[in-house]
Amino acid sequence: MTGKALDIYQTFLDEMGAAVLAADTDAFAARIFLPHVIETETFRVLLESRENVVRQFHGFCEALRGHGVDAYIRIARRARFDGPDHIEGEHETFLMSGSSLVVPQFSNTASLEWRGNVWGCTVSRHHARYIAWPDLLPRVNT
Question: 9, 17, 63, 132: which could form a disulfide with 79 (CB 3.0–4.6 Å)?
Fold first, then answer.
């Protein structure tokens, strides 16, 4: 559990991004600590079971694949320890297909906790006007 908060936070982002692009359910779900809260500017989701996490994860992966996302880039901007086993961080997200953004870049924050020898996320906030994770891609009203 040693290290600088920003380095730990960026490593977490990189590993979770790789899990998403590889559609590695187990690697992803192991780092989403329950209960997990997902917030956007317009919606809040509470995930209380692994089954909820897996369903949301598969939906997210399908949405990204459907939009041709081949790079899920998240860059840590700030992170700080809030106690020895808690990190609050901020990052920017870029969903890319080739050299083009699929959606506009957006800011995020996340709360990480140290449990059982691993850092995992308990709260993720996406500063975007999207419905909810996994629907980070805007919905069209029909």
Answer: 9
| Residue 1 burial (10 A CB sphere; 0-12, 13-18, 19+) | exposed
For residue 67, the SS3 value is coil
Residue 73 CA to residue 3 CA, distance in Å, equals 22
Measured from the Cβ of residue 137, the count of other Cβ atoms closer than 10 Å reads 18
| pTM as predicted | 0.87
Cβ contacts of 42 within 8 Å, gap of 6 or more: 129, 130, 131
Amino acid letter, residue 69? V
pLDDT mean over 72-88: 96
Helix, strand or coil, per DSSP, at residue 87: strand
Summarised one tens digit per residue, pLDDT across range 26-52 is 999 999 999 999 888 777 889 999 999
